[in-house]
Amino acid sequence: MAGQPQELLHLLTRAERLAARHVHAALDAFDCSVDAWRVLGLLSGDQGRTMTALAEDAVLPAPTLTKLIDQLVDQNLVFRRVDPVDRRRVLVQLTPRGLRRRRQLSRAVRAEWGPSSPGLTEDEESQLVPLLGRLSDALASGGDRVTTGGVETEVGRAQ
Length: 159
Hints:
This protein is of the alpha+beta class. The protein has one domain (14-142): Arc Repressor Mutant, subunit A (Orthogonal Bundle), CATH 1.10.10.10. Helices cover 58% and strands 13% of the residues. It has six helices and five strands. Strands 1-3-2 form a three-stranded antiparallel sheet. It has a two-stranded antiparallel sheet with strand order 4-5. Helix 1 (5-27) packs across helix 5 (96-113).
């Protein structure tokens, strides 16, 4: 068990970077980045998502996401439209070509990845996914505050 936050962060970061490198091998044939693949996946099946929600779910800074969305628009994989409910917001949605590309990428990644996560049995993966989800949710809801030496401070935000 990872007893120190530093150890847990190291293991999570290492696993994420190695997994992304593994997935990148499948995406290379399509000249697609891991971030673009994630964004296309987040947009599948939706009626559109706001840039704010997309940035949060993709764990990308807003300027980085904007640049990525601009590239995907140029490739005719996504389009922007005004939110009919709140005309101040812009929604991003897959184009039919984007939907086809997302399906292609998903097949390629599944073929590269295999039936379960590398090094894990299907049972281990089915245990790990909910645990990581809980950790992620806990960090998202209360992770903006860190207690060090009895003093609570904001992290990740300008004050």
